[in-house]
Every structure is written in structure tokens, then in C-alpha cells.
Amino acid sequence: MKTKITVLKLALVACLLYFFVPVCFSQTSTPSFVNPVIQMGKVTISGKIADMGKARLNKPVQVIFSLCHPISGEVVKKEIMTDNCGNYSIDLEFETNPVVVGLVTNLNRGKAIYLEIGNNRDIKLDFAYKKDGSIKLLKYPKSELTEKDMLSGMDILSKVANYHSKRKPLQLYNGSPESYLKYVKTEVSDRINLVDKTSLLSDSFKDYIKKDAFFFCSTFLFDYEGEMQFNYRDFHNGDLMPDSLKIAIPTLGYYSFMKDINLNSKLCLYSFLFPDFQEQMLRNDTLNISPIGTTPIAAWQRTVKNRISTLIGFDSGQYYDVLTANSYARQLNADVKPLSEIQKQNIHAYFQGGEIEKILLHANEKVLSRVSSIESLVVKDCSDIPDADHLIADILKNNVGKVVVVDLWATWCGPCLMALKEMRHLELPLKSEELAHVYITGDSSSKVLWSKMIKEMGGQQYYLDAKIWEKLMDKYSFEAIPSYLIFNKKGELKSKFTGYRGNRQMAEFIKDALKL
Q1: Residue 26, domain member (yes or no)
Q2: Number of domains in the chain
Q3: Which of 302, 420, 494, 514 stands 20 to 30 A from 73 (CA)?
Q4: Taking CA 405 as the corner, what is the angle to CA 70 and CA 400, rounded to the nearest 5 degrees?
Q5: String of DSSP letters for 263-315
Q6: Is 157 among the domain residues?
């Protein structure tokens, strides 16, 4: 379990998302940090970055902006480069008013700035790096966030993610799901106490950070089978759990942990982990929430409420409208399937031209432009592949004349899944038929979950046994995932690296592979 939790910590810190009368949750209150409203809009952020240790910057700085789109179900990352003097400007689309935006640069990726932006207004943000790498705000927008909120949020989140309990590790794989639930709830409580004890943050920003702590730990609870497999390995020198040892299946009542989150709290709309939580809920076999498809929204919500209201603690409120939108968004994002005319009619009948309808239709337009570039799913038979060399030879043989991007990933790897979502929006410098995406995972991934996920991913999929997976990792000196190999059209390896570098850098790697 330690290995898995370590990888998922990186994901948290990097991220650092009826039949007759339709009833839609109305929004009449004044927007504020603790009470954002759902609203589609765009904002321009511009300013200047300085280095107080130097007279001037000698090269452009990479700036990465992140924000949650809770309705279209994604965490959006946008990258830009400053000019040589540190000047920058970027346009960002948002889905809530106000919106929380996270900002980091390549000058110090361990320090971030949180911004609260509202009222559709453009803002100026000037800041400088001190000699010790910390940030000094020079010009920034007035908001409900304090300066300490803006600058210390990442530090507190890091403490939450990197928290190590002094308790003795428990053998949980042969116990009940309820025993594991009790264990995780204790971990959540410890992390919440860390947030409560800090004097650096305002009370409202503490509440926001607590939501992230809940969502972070819920990742482990949703993947009970994977967690128990890792727990077994921790107590058996890394050995895989034998098939003869069966893992208990959580009952519906196990998921009552969701009551503790208060999903009707509007602070959830800011969380960078909220879209992932929603996706896990919508695809969970035990919760068994059917895709909305062409079902009228009121009827779908009634069925969903009967299924989960006692688990989340309420049967009315804005959350159900957000969950409805996220079900449509799964079709758009994961299946890359545009909305049908019947679905558009259902959306309009319920949301009556409101902000959620506007956001879904806007997301639909984006999907229409992506449909032609999606690669069909091909599942490769790995039974006759004896070693890593033959594996790579097989991949290159099947993709002659193409640039090949090999992605080593796992179903339990948070950063891997975040990278897959980000790559959906990768703007490629070549035609789709000139590029092949190859995805490779090992048997640390749940095969049941893998079989479901690859249907959404497409591309060429390989599921390796532990021996070949380890040989492949050793062959290219990889020690962690996600890791990537990029081959040019001649089958020559042009780039290899661990950790997703962002869409801008990935596009550059692919451009380099095009150079013959």
C-alpha cells in the first residue's frame, strides 16, 4: 500500500474539479468564496514574473495554470511561456463564479499561488521569487483569500498528502471492508487535524483544504480491491496475492463514508480532486449508477436518489444536478461521444437554458472537433511475448511508418490517470494516422478495472505479467510511472522520460520524433 499511496500523493500535490415539471436547483445567492455559483465565463490573467536574485530573467519561464471544471468533469491545465522579461498573459475558461486557480512555474515547482477570481473580471498578478525560492506577491487581485491563503495552501496540502501515521501498519487484506474503512477514517481525521492546527490559513480556506483531504482518501476507499492487493504485497515481500485468496466485496453500506464529505457543500466545486471522485462514483459497480443516456433527467435523478441518498446523507440539492452533468460529461470525455439530439432536448427541458446547459453544449462542441482523431481500441495478446525486447519489436513492427508513443501506466496510479485526461487535449503537429498510442500496464493493475478503462482510452493496449513488466522497466531504467517512450517513424527511440511534462512539452517531444 505504501507504493501506491506515494504515487497518489504526487497526484494531489501536482494538482494541486419529475416527468411533468422539471425541478432544477436555482441559484439566487450572491457569489462568494464559500458560496460559488455555477457560471460559464472567461478571464484574462496577465502580469510579470521576476527573480529577486537576478537583475533580470535570461530566458522564458514556463507557467502552469490549473482549475477545476466541475460541470464538464475535468481539471484543466494550461501552459504558457513568458517572454524574456517575464511578461505573460493567458485566457482561461471557468465554470464557477468565483473560481480557484492554482499557478506554478518551472522556477520552483514546489511553490504555488492560489487565486480566487470572480465577476468575470480580468486580473493582474505580478510576483517575484526570493533567493530562498519563496514567492513575494507584488500586485494581486483583492479577494476573500488572504495573502497567506494564496501562498501557503500548497504547503499545507503537501503536509496533508505526506502525512505518515506513527501507528503500526495493519494487515487488512484478509479482513472486512469495514475494517479498512475504519482505518482510512482514522487517517482522514489525522489529516483534518493537521489543517485545523495551522495558523497560516483563514477558516474558509481551511474548509476548502479539508475537502481535498476527504477526496484524496476516498480514492483509496473506492479502489478497495487494489488497496488490499497492495496491502498483501506489503506483508509478503512484494509478492502478488494468490488467486486462491479472495478479497471481500464491499456492500452498499460501505459507501456511507460519503456522508462525511457533505457533497452539497459548494466548496466541492473548487476541488481539483472532485472530478475524479465523481468519475469513481459513476463507474462503481456496487453503486451501480447507470449512464444517463437518453433517460429524462428527472427520471434518472429519481433512480439515483433511491440508490445513493442514504449513502451521501441528502436527497435534494445542487449536487444532483452536478452529478447529472457529470454523467453526460463522462460520455463526452471518456467515450468521446457527442450528445444526441434527444439528449440535448432532455438537457434543455430540465435546465431551461441555464448555466449547466450552456456548459454542456460548449463541451459538446469541443468533442465534435476531437471525434476524428480518436484511435480505435486494439487489445494485444501478450501470451507469446517472451521478453521486453520482443515486446518492443512487436510494437514497432505493427506501427511501421508511424511515430509511436508508448505509455507505461497502471489503473491505480493517480498521476497516470491525470496525464491520460490531460492528453485528451493534446494538440498534435501531425495527422492522426501518422501517430500510434501504445499503452502498457502490468499485473499490479486490476484486470477487471483495466478491461473497463481501456474501452474509454482506445489505442493499442498491452497487459503484461510481472516478469516482463519488470524487464521492460529495467531495460529503459525506469523506476516509476507514468513513463514514456517516443519512437520516430524509423523505429528509433527519440525520447524517454518519467512523469508527464504537460501537453506543451509532449507536443515538442513528438515534433522532435518527426525529424528524420
Answers
A1: no
A2: 4
A3: 302
A4: 140
A5: TT-GGGGG-TTHHHHHHHHHH-TTTT----TTS-HHHHHHHHHHHHHHHHT-S
A6: yes
Separation CA 356–CA 444 (nearest Å): 38
What whole-number distance in Å separates Cα of residue 137 and Cα of residue 146? 12
End-to-end, the C-alpha distance of the chain in Å comes to 44
Contact in structure between 393 and 474 (CB atoms under 8 Å): no
pLDDT tens digits along 453-502: 898 888 999 999 989 999 999 999 999 999 999 999 999 999 999 999 88
Position 447 in a domain: yes
Reported as type and span, the H/E element at residue 366 is helix 355-368
Residue 8 domain-assigned? no
* DSSP run (H or E) holding 212: helix 203-222
Cβ atoms within 10 A of the Cβ of 143, count? 18
Determine contact, residues 102/114, Cβ cutoff 8 Å: yes
What is the CATH classification number for the domain harbouring 134? 2.60.40.3330
Instruction: Give every CB contact of residue 6 below 8 A, 6+ residues apart in sequence.
Output: none
The predicted-structure confidence for 10-25, as pLDDT tens digits, reads as follows 444 444 422 223 333 3
Q: What percent of the chain has pLDDT over 90?
A: 69
Nearest to 491 by CA among 442, 438, 426, 428: 438
Answer yes or no: do 303 and 280 share one domain.
no
The one-letter amino acid code at 510 reads I
Same domain membership, residue 152 and residue 280: yes
What nine digits make up the cell of 154?
500548497
Question: Are 367 and 382 members of one domain?
Answer: no
**Grid cell in block for residue 367:** 468533442
How many whole angstroms separate alpha carbon 237 and alpha carbon 367? 46
Residue 453, amino acid: M
Domain boundary among 334, 356, 371: 371
The span from the CA of 157 to the CA of 139, in Å, is: 24
How many other CB atoms are there within 10 angstroms of residue 199's CB atom? Answer: 6
- Whether 271 and 303 map to the same domain: the answer is no
CA–CA distance, 488 with 82 (Å, rounded to integer): 30
Question: In terms of residue numbers, what domain contains 54?
Answer: 37-145
Report the pLDDT value the prediction gives residue 432, as an integer from 0 to 100.
66
State the DSSP code for 259: G
Residue 420's nearest CA partner among 429, 408, 432, 428 is 408
**Euclidean distance between CA atoms 345 and 321, whole angstroms:** 16
For residues 305 and 331, is the Cβ–Cβ distance under 8 A?
Answer: no
Distance of CA 91 to the CA centre of its chain: 21
CA distance 459 to 437: 5
